[in-house]
Amino acid sequence: MGVTMGLNLLLLMAMVATNIxxxxxxxxxxxxxxxxxxxxxxxxxxxxxxTLRATINHLTRDHPSPSTATAKTTKPDIPxxxxxYSQLSxxxxxxHNHPDLVHKYMTYTPFSLxxxxxDLAEALILRGCHPLPxxxxxxxxxxxxxxxxxxxxxxxxxPDSNVLWDKYSCKSFSCLGGKNPNLxxxxxxxxxxxxxxxxxxxxxxxxxxxxxxxxxxxxxxGVDIGGGTGTFAARMKLYNVTVVTTTMNLGIPxxxxxxxxxxxxxxxxLQQRLPVFxxxxxxxxxxxxxxxxxxxxxxxxxxxDADRVLRGGGYLWLDKFxxxxxxxxxxxxxxxxxxGYRKVKWATANKNDSGGIKNGEVYLSALLQKPxxx
Length: 374
Description:
By secondary structure, the protein is α/β, with parallel strands linked by helices. It has helices at residues 2-30, 43-62, 66-71, 80-88, 99-106, 118-126, 173-179, 187-190, 205-214, 231-237, 254-260, 296-309, 325-337, 354-359, and strands at 221-225, 242-246, 264-266, 281-286, 310-324, 342-350, 361-369. InterPro entries: Methyltransf_11, Prob_Methyltransferase, SAM-dependent_MTases_sf.
């Protein structure tokens, strides 16, 4: 009812504005006996008309009238819960760019079990539709989860019974670990990560603490951006440092693995503003997910959001960021330099896999310290 009344009011205003324009032209014609010459329409009237038309188009698109809905029989009805939630809280503007996916995500039976559609949710998130609209359904949980979980973030294995495997090609953590040890699910293989020095690109955690200690800095809280299965947060936990991990599943249960290790996963894409208050963390690490595939403007916003959550004297760690060598020199290096951070470590090396050699790519590992005051 409220939407219909508002739409009628806007239509009335548009009609009045149109009549005003007609009177304006008519008065210009009557004031002179000479043949009428075209008079420019005042900018403010044009602006008002454009605003009214845009608003009307938006409302009629999202809330079609009964006649319009009848005419377009092929278009599916908007889920009632989507309309209801949109009235309670705005959804991300990018959601409107993918109405079919949003309608599918919000087409469910309220107060019943949620559909198994985590892949659909991530498809929307990766398209900028984040946060997703809330739903009134019950999340599915494994039928027989284990009664207790290991305290050690590096257990010999993770319990398969605590995961819903329906959406994954592998049906166990051992399958994932055997498929590719570098995915992060082979925990005995993960134990040595971040602890050894193999090349100039490495920054072992003990060395990180030595650097912080020499600067009279304390590491207590951190954010790991694109942290996969949470190995960095797991290692820092053993040093009594709390690190939350942003991660996406993308066909493998990264979020589930992080949680089963007693850590906090944040299901958020790289373009999402970090759900952390300003200036409260000591360390932000950008993992392998942060690389040259990110659009430059999006990367710039990501770096400045990391600056937002870092306290003065905190550290930004770009861990094996890769790009084309020429782009690192001309694009990404100057982009990182905009932060004005002190370079504690800045090491580069050739990326020697097939893709790296083909594209002339290099790795960058950089530890940067935020100034105490600007």
